[in-house]
Amino acid sequence: MEETEPDWWKRLFDETYLVTDARSVCDEALTAREVDFLEGILKPEKTGPILDICGGQGRHALELSRRGYADVSVVDYSEFLIDLGRRRSQHEGLDTRFIRCDARDTKLPSGRFMVIIVMAGSFGYFVDENENRKILREAFRLLRPGGRLLLDLPSRDYILKHFSARTWHEADTDTVVCRQRKLQDDIIYSREMVISKRKGLIRDEDYFIRLYTQEAITDMLSAVGFGDIRVQMDFSPHGKNGDYGCMTNRMIVIATKKNG
Fold first, then answer.
1. Is residue 184 part of a domain?
2. Domain that residue 87 falls in
């Protein structure tokens, strides 16, 4: 699994992903609790521009728009997820904007947003830390002075304590998801096999995600230029106990773009 293709993220987030991760990314009640948390901790203004980086089909962004936030945008590389989110926004009569791009270089105007969120462990997809750092630099560029970035990251401490090399769950009545994991140098290398009881193997892909200590992510954010960095541990918004992989227990990091 150490030879995982670096650009795995370009192909993994498709219709199968919505099945394998449905218990998190398709759970409306969970999304509502996560947005409740965002509102409580960030207290964003209803008119302040918000950007959801690596926001997929925009489950958080759409919920924010439903709650009256007037200027909400999503960027993601997955054409499938962006198209899905755009259709949902139009169907509900919302103004949520969906933009397909690379989070390291969005081409969006500098200083456009007051709040940027990166939810559900969507940071740390590169073994090369320079590439992860580019996302933080881009977020810094896109924020107005005084604007805030929120990172929702897997809790390294929790994962180290509860690490399982092999897991499986039934995603629905037909689909079984099996994952083999290896932890090395704070990177989880995973092989995901998705098996249909009717059709057989429908996915066999490798991917990885980097884990961060509180000190490591704080240092990265500080090096980019962020200040007033705050960390909250043990964020667990799922409504019932269970193994939700890297999303079972999370670390929330909030950083501010300094004025001047």
1. no
2. 9-155+212-257
Domain total of the chain: 1
Bridge partner residues of 135 (DSSP): none
Q: What is the pTM of this model?
A: 0.93
CATH number, domain of 137, equals 3.40.50.150
Low-confidence ranges of the chain (pLDDT < 50): 1-2
Three-class SS of residue 132?
A: helix
Is 174 a domain residue?
Answer: no
User: Looking at 155-196, which runs of residues are DSSP E strands?
Assistant: 166-170, 175-184, 187-196
Q: For residues 40 and 35, what is the distance between their CA atoms, to the nearest angstrom?
A: 8
Is 203 domain-assigned? no
181: β partners: 190
- Residue 148: which of 43, 57, 32, 36 has the closest Cα? 43
**Distance between CA atoms of residues 119 and 126, nearest Å:** 16
4 lies in some domain: no
Alpha helices in 143-187 (DSSP H): 156-162
Helix (H) and strand (E) counts for the chain? 9, 11
Taking the CB of residue 237, how many other CB atoms lie within 10 A of it? 19
Unique residue bearing structure tokens 């689909």: 175
Query: Could you read off the pLDDT of 22-74 as tens digits, one per residue?
Result: 888 889 999 999 999 999 999 999 999 999 999 999 999 999 999 999 999 99
Tell me if 111 sits within 8 A of 259, measured CB to CB: no
